[in-house]
Design goal:
By secondary structure, the protein is an alpha+beta fold. Helix content is about 25%, strand content about 10%. The chain is elongated, with a radius of gyration of 14 Å.
Length: about 80
């Protein structure tokens, strides 16, 4: 059940990484708490709301998928 923000999420709050996007760096966003965090689960540890792990805006979606394709190419070159 979704409740309001309890403030627990502040322990997991992350700063914006330099040179890459938040989602590309593995950060997730809780819409209810309005915070980006580093969390392995799919639900917010604070309020139980589902976390976003991909951008919604078309421009940022394209950047996100481009960075994923670029990283996959680097991994394949190492093999």
């Amino acid at each position: 059940m979704v409740t309001s923000c309890n403030g627990i999420c502040n322990r997991y709050k992350m700063v914006k990484p330099n040179g890459t996007g938040r989602y590309s760096a593995g950060q997730k966003r809780c819409n209810l708490c309005d915070i980006f965090m580093q969390w392995e689960g799919i639900f917010c540890p604070c309020c139980g709301y589902r976390l976003r792990s991909r951008p919604r805006n078309g421009k940022y979606k394209e950047k996100y998928y481009e960075s994923i394709r670029k990283n996959e190419g680097v991994i394949m070159e190492r093999l």
